[in-house]
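Re: the 65-residue chain
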Amino acid sequence: MAKVKHLSKYSIIRKLRTIEGVIKKNCYDCMGGQKRVDCELETCSLFSFRPWAKKDKRTNFEKDK
């Protein structure tokens, strides 16, 4: 993402929602159109950002938040 210091709060939120939507669409496509299925493909570059991961199975990156 480009420098965000000059952007307004709403512009930053809009960019983050766009990124979140792209991740969800990619996971939806990868899982064969099945929503709410926990992905087990650990080699995926988006594995840490899985939108439908169960809370007890999340990675350390997501637990730190």
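The chain has two helices and no strands.
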